[in-house]
Design a protein that fits this description.
This protein is α+β, with helices and mostly antiparallel strands and 398 residues long. It contains twelve helices and 25 strands.
């Protein structure tokens, strides 16, 4: 461990607080991949493990799949010794060096998980457990948010189902969902929900406990560092999925005593049944006027919560954008090429499209330069409490 600590410490010092990360590819077996992650076609299919449907970015979270693979989901740090050093162990061994003295005293991890998810069909109607239920199985809750990038094929089912029809929550008709969970033979549970069209350059904020079935658009997601869920939809992509996914994060005691009814207790009915769900959860980009420059600009794209936050940065051809932030973050370069604080970056080049910016570097000015012929587009991902100035939507009650 001391060798790893020294090596990571040297990397941080020698690269002025910037670490290069490798992509973390994650397989899922309940739906086929959408094949839009930039991999060679033959790399998507993994036999019994399913297919590569997600890329996790700056991840300290282990993927919780039926077939367990060492370090699946965990980001690793590029290094000259070519040894496997996960970002998770680096943060655990050197918390103050990566997260800063003050932040690491009150936060024991980066506390967020950015990812790209890429499915051929709409994901099944599901929920992510709220904190009190997630803790019962030794996990964190999973609040999340979405951004749908431009210039990408939206797929064949580009609508997301959110929540339930308001009368179900208002009249406490929760048991309407129960027959679908018990019979487990089709996708008709979606009749109790409402669909919202996915629009490129748009997004949503989804608290834990919210029922949702994300559409087929390639999606940039930011969430709490957790992989808990309960699938409520039996049939998706033309096939019946394993009912064990309904109970994946349910204690054996609750499953035995309450069976399918326990899932109804895990739903946040207030949010799922909100008649103004769109007004209260729709998060289009918000330009940050005070940092706008001639060479580029940045936008809030993940906001409305203090559990995480995120920005989109656009630097125009030949331009520069200089700014500083409030604490540690990581970036994903989406399109274009240039430099980030002197480090070469390039979208879709898996050796150069992912960086971690340690705290002491993040709070100083960093210049981003576009050396290409098209807009340089990248995303910044921040953990809990770092951007307390991120926008909050006004609560709409009609």
């Amino acid at each position: 461990m001391n060798e790893i600590m020294k090596h990571v410490s040297d990397l941080i010092e020698n690269n002025d607080g910037i670490l290069r990360l490798n992509p973390a590819w994650v397989a899922r077996d309940f739906l086929p991949p959408g094949r839009r992650l930039g991999l060679p076609d033959e790399m998507y299919d993994l036999g019994d493990r399913g297919g590569i449907c997600e890329r996790w970015v700056g991840s300290t979270t282990k993927a919780d799949n039926n077939i367990s693979v060492p370090n699946e989901g965990l980001s690793t740090i590029q290094n000259e010794m070519d040894i496997v050093i996960t970002l998770k162990e680096a943060v655990e061994l050197l918390p103050s060096l990566i997260m800063g003295d003050e932040y690491s005293r009150t936060h024991n991890s980066l506390g967020r998980l950015p990812k790209i998810f890429d499915y051929k069909y709409r994901l099944p109607y599901h929920l992510h457990q709220m904190e009190h239920h997630a803790r019962l199985v030794g996990c964190n809750s999973k609040e999340e948010a979405y951004y749908f990038p431009e210039e990408v094929d939206m797929g064949n089912e580009a609508e997301t189902y959110f929540g339930v029809h308001p009368y179900i929550a208002e009249q406490k008709k929760y048991d309407l969902l129960l027959p679908h969970l018990k019979e487990w033979n089709d996708d008709s549970i979606l009749q109790h929900s409402r669909a919202f069209k996915q629009i490129p350059g748009d997004g949503y904020h989804v608290p834990s406990g919210t029922l949702h079935a994300p559409g087929s658009a390639l999606t940039i997601e930011l969430q709490e560092d957790s992989d808990v869920f309960a699938m409520l939809q039996a049939k998706t992509g033309g096939k019946i999925i394993d009912k064990e996914l309904l109970f994946k994060d349910v204690t054996s005691e609750d499953r035995k005593s309450k069976a399918e009814k326990i899932i109804l207790e895990m739903i946040n009915w207030e949010i799922s049944g909100d008649p103004y769900f769109y007004e209260n959860r729709h998060t289009p980009p918000i330009i940050i006027e005070e940092t706008k420059r001639k060479g580029g600009e940045e936008y809030w794209i993940f906001y409305n919560t203090h559990k995480f936050s995120g920005k989109k940065v656009v630097v125009h051809p030949g331009g520069e954008f200089t700014g500083k932030d409030n604490g540690v973050y990581n970036i994903l370069v989406w399109r274009g090429k240039g430099t980030y604080g002197g480090a070469e970056i390039e979208g879709l080049n898996f050796d150069k499209d992912e960086l971690l910016i340690c705290n002491d570097r993040a709070v100083r000015e960093i210049t981003v330069k576009n050396t290409g012929e098209r807009d340089l587009i990248l995303f910044k991902f921040f953990g809990k409490d770092i951007n307390k100035n991120a926008p909050m939507l006004p609560k709409y009650k009609g």
